[in-house]
Write a structure and sequence with these properties.
Layout: E1 4-7, E2 10-12, H1 19-28, E3 33-38, E4 42-47, E5 52-58, E6 64-69, E7 75-80, E8 84-89, E9 95-100, E10 107-110, E11 116-121, E12 126-131, E13 137-142, E14 153-159, E15 164-169, E16 174-179, E17 209-213, E18 220-222, E19 229-233, E20 238-242, E21 247-252, E22 262-268, E23 272-277, E24 286-289, E25 296-300, E26 310-313, E27 319-324, E28 326-335, E29 341-356
Antiparallel strand pairs: 1-2, 1-5, 3-4, 3-29, 4-5, 6-7, 7-8, 8-9, 10-11, 11-12, 12-13, 14-15, 15-16, 16-17, 18-19, 19-20, 20-21, 22-23, 23-24, 24-25, 26-27, 27-28, 28-29
Length: 357
Amino acid sequence: MRGRFVFAGVVLAGTLVSTGANSQVDALSTKPILLTLSLPCRLDVRRVPHLVPVVTLDSSAERCTAMAVSPVNRRLAVSNANGDVVLRRVPDLAATAHGRLAGETDRMMFSADGRYLIGLSTRQAMLVVADVESLAQTRTLQLHDRDRIPLMVRAFLLHRKRQSVLLSFENSTEIWEIFYAPDATPVFEGLVHDFRMQEAVAEATELPVRRIRLDRHGGQMFLPGDLSELHFWSPTSRSVLNLDVRRITAGTSRQLDSPAEACAVLPLGRVQLALIPCPGEHDDLLAFVNPTTGEVEQLRQPVVNRRPAKVATDDVGNYRVAVMPGQYGQLVLYDRMSIGRLGEASVSGLLDAWLYP
């Protein structure tokens, strides 16, 4: 991917040569920033809380499809429609590696230790794990059920402590846990005690898959911290799947106070959840919920008649950004404790946004 750099409103071709611009970039290395990706392929590094662009990389000749931010080493990955992936440093956006993943990669994430880049191609029903340093593919997995029917991914989560990826599907009630670590232990089919008695059949050790069969979809799923628990949330119930024993171990049927049905759930640190509303009468409301009690602590209206698609948060959960992508994209920044908005920005063709670190 080639492009042009813009620092503080000045277009710079090639290398980074502006002393004033570099000093601004260096200052961002220790402060929260917002990274945005917009069509056709523009990256912006924005200063928090005012959301003013400080660094811009515009590769208008390409069409970008996904972005992921490393949790440990200040790098991001951007993929385009041709399957190319570029790693870039944060915050100066200098390219550090080039490679290819699975066709048109539409979702990506880094592993918890920053060693692997995990890409998902929904169209090809394929999951790819690549080494971050070289972007060489180390593992590839086709997402098919036992009848070889391609599975449509509904949710795509990373469990840091277990070094695994959790998938739920639109056309299956199974939950898949895919272990990507190089030393991943074999996964066994059968009851929990079977493998201890060496009576079960082990799957291949390359990207071993544990298929957890549920009676029905439990709602939107999320991971609270590093526990071996997968939580399901709906407006009328909550349930907990223990990943070690592969059974539902807890559940409630409490009705929530939120006026809008949640179509996505995002943990904000360890203190709150953000409920992304489904399209409907109250789809411009954003609810912040206590995960322990299920009570709605705050209701926000980011932009009138604009449904948020995502809430970006930093590592400690002090900031969160309501992301409304589209041709006339909008960003709204909040502080966890305050009521008012800290900053707003309009972004043409907005695709995605990340608060960093």
